[in-house]
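Lab manual, section 2.4: Encoding a predicted structure.

Procedure: take the sequence of the chain (243 residues), apply the prediction step described in section 2.3, and record the output as structure tokens. A sample record is shown.
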Amino acid sequence: MPDKSPYRRVSTNLKVGDKDIVTFFNRLKTAASAEWRAYTEHPFTNGLADGSLPEAAFRHYLVQDYLFLIEFARAYALAVYKSPGLADMREAASGLSAILDVEMDLHVKLCAGWGLSPADLERAPPAAEMLAYTRYVLDAGMRGDLLALKVALAPCVIGYAEIATRLAARPGADAATNAYRVWIAEYAGAPYQEVAAKARAHLDHLADRYVTPAREAELIAIFREATRLEADFWEMGWREGKR
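Recorded output:
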């Protein structure tokens, strides 16, 4: 039977001979290394690994992330429209399905423990950081092509996989006493890791088709700003935990 899961297996073996290819995504990360570190190593993430993050910080983040995912679903729907071919459309549609059918479900289950229903989450007042980030991504997609949109989406979908892998390797991350072990396990698990690998492979494929040296500088600027806005999202939750 064909695999109908929104999480499809994808090869991540990007090598020629014995040397790793310097992929487009790696070039983006290198060019935005300071922003990438601030995002992927934010104190909020370390608090998830050792369980020290205040519940208020995680709760605020998770509610806002639910609203964020609604807007990101719109961005993936836009990616379908921006796709030049059926293969690109199918890739965007699988990402949309992963958000609507899997990732948002995690938020619903976790928030149910606080007595919050999906309707409560959808009615939550949006934070400025959530609006700034999602509007930036949607604007990048509206003004640009599919590649520009995928570059704006990349810090989220690929970054979460990298963050969760790092956190999962920390001692005690999966301990029964860590209230955030379910979140870590979701994003460190094979299904989501495959989603991220697929997104990265598709981004590199688009870059092979459409990137020029002049265009790369423009795309780096988009990636850098989207990564900065991701760090702001962590900071939003972090501040809430200090109140």
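Check your result against the sample. The beta strands are 15-16, 19-20.
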